[in-house]
Amino acid sequence: MVREKLNTRNRISNWMKVATREQVIRALRKVFEENRVISSQKRLRELVSSYLKKGEEVYHVSEERLRKLAIKEKLATVEIYSREGNPEKILAKCPVCGSNLDKIKNLTIWGGEVTIEYVCQTCGYWSGKKKRIPTKYVFHALSR
After folding, report:
1. What are the φ/ψ torsions at residue 32 (nearest 5 degrees)?
2. Burial category of 94 from C-beta neighbours within 10 Å (exposed 0-12, middle 13-18, buried 19 and up)
3. Distances from the Cα of 87 to the Cα of 92, 117, 118, 131, angstroms
4. Domain residues for 125?
């Protein structure tokens, strides 16, 4: 049983490789040159994967990695659709790009401070008292 799993894993690793950062950025640039708006993260991955196929070699890249690279390399802006989440959850990192969130605070009438909003300076994500959980991303290519 263990030997079968190892053989399967070796076949997969020989067939599909993880794309390098440079390969992904090059493919993202080509995709955003041809498509000004991409309606979902899944569609972005499909388009980039088609550029990463070279002969029999297939390169793999995750949707999350594509989203983060597109934002950090300033290739696209992201329109974020979200739903309400658990207000008890404390956010430290941005769920969209992984950057640190800035806290917007307000003074109470008793002199204390209360956090009213979390804002990401990198991608524009924000969340208030009711936490926003991203559900869909729409990518808009930036002009070069």
Report:
1. -75, -20
2. buried
3. 14, 12, 12, 5
4. 2-141
Does this model's pTM top 0.85? My answer is no
Spatial distance between the Cα atoms of 126 and 111, rounded to a whole number of angstroms: 25
Instruction: Give the total number of structural domains in the chain.
Output: 1
Tens digits of residue pLDDT in 61-118:
999 999 999 999 999 999 999 999 988 888 889 999 999 999 999 999 999 999 999 9
Distance CA 52, CA 61 (A): 9
Lookup: tokens for 38: 């991409």
Distance of alpha carbon 121 from alpha carbon 96, whole angstroms: 12
Residue 122: phi and psi, rounded to 5, are -80, -50
- Name the token pair of 23: 């390969």
